[in-house]
Design brief:
Radius of gyration: 14 Å
Number of strands: 0
Helix content: 40-55%
Largest sheet: none
Strand content: under 5%
Number of helices: 1
Order of helices and strands: H
Shape: elongated
Structural class: mainly alpha
Distance between the termini: 42 Å
Amino acid sequence: MLKTHPCIIPYEKLSENEKDYDRNTAINTLKLIVKLGFKIVR
């Protein structure tokens, strides 16, 4: 039996709530990295 999560689908097929959750998680992760003293450069 495969152990998969129903949200492992192409991004464009996620609901808007799931996209918001993913975006907020990414933003908060970056904020934490900066708060810990790391610098993010392009």
